[in-house]
Amino acid sequence: MKRAALVLGLVLLIGAAFVAGFGYGRWYGPKGEAATAGAGKKIRYYIDPMHPSYKSDKPGIAPDCGMALVPVFEDGSLGGEEAPGADKKVLYYHDPKQPSYRSDKPGVNPETGNDLEPVYETAAPGTISISAEKQQWIGVRTEEARVESGHEMLRAAGRVTADETRVVRVTSRTGGWIEKVMVDFTGRFVRAGEPMFTLYSPELMASQQEYLLAIKAEETMAHSSVPGAHTSTLSMKDSARRRLEHWGLDDAAIQELERTKKPQRSTTIHAPSSGFVLTRNAFPNARVTPETELYTLVDLSRVWIIADVYESDMSNIRMGQTAVVMPTYLPGRKINARVTNILPQVDPQTRTLKVRLDAENPGLVLKPDLFVNVEFHSSLPARLTVASSAVLNSGLRKIVFVAKGDGIFEPRTVETGEYFDGRVEIRSGLRAGEQVVSEGAFLLDSESQMKNPAPPAAAAGQTIAPAGAPAKSSGGHKHD
Q1: Is the pTM of this model over 0.70?
Q2: Does 265 lie in the same domain as 203?
């Protein structure tokens, strides 16, 4: 009986020892891949996973946070499931007491004899990991941030006006009365040299008679023996001829006067240039003076367009810039133009800048005072750009998601510049060649905010103080 009890007790003791050993290995021993990874490796020391600066030569519990110490192997890898950096990339190894010393491999600093510690690649706040299946499901597409030149287009409203350098005003150089009018309505097109009206002028009649007398005197004194007589009559003739030219008689009219030896009662005034008649003040029997503007002619083969550009777009306009003019009544018709002047004053009512363009007018499709659409075109210098859909604007900042590989996406704050052709300039925060999310960025941002929620806002009337500092209240009593 005693023998049986002894055997039974021995069996129970062996069973208890087995259970204790299994439980210790189950709860405190190395686990899964961590145990396998550490097999055959020499342990250099142990660290606190929450505070890697704490080291120990033996395993145990960290005194500050109560967590189990994690072994650091010779190759720099860490053991245990909770080892910091187990799933991170090692950037380099450094001496914590001499941070300037770095090495690509684990080892010892030959100057101080201190063990080198790994420095891991840290993820930026908001970085998320998305599986390939989920990326396909939400439609994530990436593209490379690239340096490229672009083409900028700015639209503005414009109004056609006559080219002031092609406007001619017809007047009479002498006073008199209009006898006959050949150009008798506004809007008519006249060619240069075409007769417009006839004018009776007493002053012009007197000048013609004076010229005829000078011709007769020159002929009479041609063989005079009086010294200087012939020269004097030649001078009088030249002076009378210049007076006729001053009154507006051309060479043909003067030659006709010399041939007939009779002054012409009325003088025909011809068009000084080709153009359309904009205004007409010449009527039969009307008395005119040199100050009377009888006709206004304008050449519409080239016209001006006055475009209204908003002051926010003034920096995009420059002299010599090309543009396209599109008449509103001719859809699809485009006429090339060029900026020839930028007026120095902004319209105080519309807050727009007047920009003048010069354009050919084929077929006279551009009528004065016609409203047109104007597109300004210019080439942009090479710059770093991404698709405009890649930039998320929250109002306070603009971010893009950078694809780091293996389904890792990092939010990056960027500074943007100009938008053109569906792309946006990136002035800072991104490098050429980096992959950014061009489609699906909004869903990634939502995922990032759910996995990395922002801290709660401060209560009304309070300010959130830094860690370790007492909070301040905007009101209430002071407590001791």
Answers
A1: no
A2: yes
